[in-house]
Amino acid sequence: MPGAAGAGLRASSLRRRRAWGLFRRPQAVLGLAALTLVIVIAIGASFIAPHDPYVQSLDERLRPPFWSGGNLAHPLGTDQLGRDILSRLIYGARISMAVGLAAVLISGSLGVAAGVTAGFYGGLVDEGLMRLVDLRLALPFILLVIAVIAVFGPSLLNLIVILGLTGWAPYARVVRAEVLSIRERELVTAARALGASDGRLMIRHILPNTLASAIVIGSLELAQMIVTESALSFLGLGVQPPTPSWGSMLGEGRDYLLTSWWLATFPGLAIALTAVAINLVGDWLRDLLDPRLQL
Fold first, then answer.
1. H or E element: which one contains 79?
2. Is residue 5 part of a domain?
């Protein structure tokens, strides 16, 4: 036991050193800073936004950004209904992050549960769940989501539920592969010999050892969920007007690309930069949590 405790302390110390070392990487710092900024903006949108994102003013419609002949009252200009672009971008961050985080939480919970169950029991249970994973992965994700939304109708709640229920397969496959190895370890064998039930073995001994991989997958899936939400809103199948969403703003601006470029440019940049920031943070978490990189 003292040897095991010492090994645990050494692993913890090594992980802390790796965390600080990785944090000094410029891309990790930029990604974490940008993602933190988006989250802070999303949480404090009602205090940060200079205008009400729903208020229309046709006298102010299609005002350019302040550096292109506009004014500082609307720094990034206004849209075709006179609504402030900056305020709608700020409130759009709240929608995008809420949809992405909720969908990742749902899909991650389902995928981890399926992966742990399949890997632990094996046999017909494993075979059945993995065939469901293969079936899900055989269908293009975006087409599957569009088909389901077309049946149940577009709304914010439907979007979150559908994205969550269709994004579980990557978690299940990775977690199942880890459980196949973890269930043969001495700690699981010893707990089983002491009379631990299957539920206790999975929850107390196997599940904690799979969370690192699940967190890394979730960080990378978050970017995909945000991009998918934006794509669906762009097509009119996601968040419905007048609720501000980066995707719907992008869709509204496509008719004004030649005359009012700022309508589509700023929401497009917000989507791209947020996705890049999340991927940078995901790479950092992968390098930090992957035990194979800590040897």
1. none
2. no
What distance in Å separates the CA atoms of residue 105 and residue 278, rounded to the nearest whole number?
16
pTM: 0.84
| 266 inside domain | yes
Angle at 51 between CA 84 and CA 257, to 5 degrees: 10
The domain tally of the chain equals 1
Residue 267 Cα distances to 90, 103, 251, angstroms: 10, 21, 10
Q: Give tens-digit pLDDT for 196-254.
A: 787 888 888 888 888 888 888 998 899 989 999 888 888 888 888 888 899 989 988 88
By residue range, what is the domain housing residue 141? Answer: 81-294
In 3D, which of 216, 213, 221, 209 has the Cα closest to residue 283?
216
Q: Which of 6, 12, 10, 64 is nearest to 261 (CA)?
A: 64
Q: How many CB atoms lie within 10 A of CB 56?
A: 15
Extract the tokens encoding 231: 């794509």
Q: What is the pLDDT of residues 23-67, one digit of tens each?
A: 567 788 888 899 999 999 999 999 999 999 999 988 889 999 999
* Single-letter amino acid, residue 39: I
In sequence order, what are the residues at sequence separation of 6 or more whose Cβ sits closer than 8 angstroms to the Cβ of residue 214? Answer: 108, 111, 112, 171, 174, 175
User: Is the four-CA dihedral 99, 73, 82, 275 of positive or negative sign?
Assistant: negative
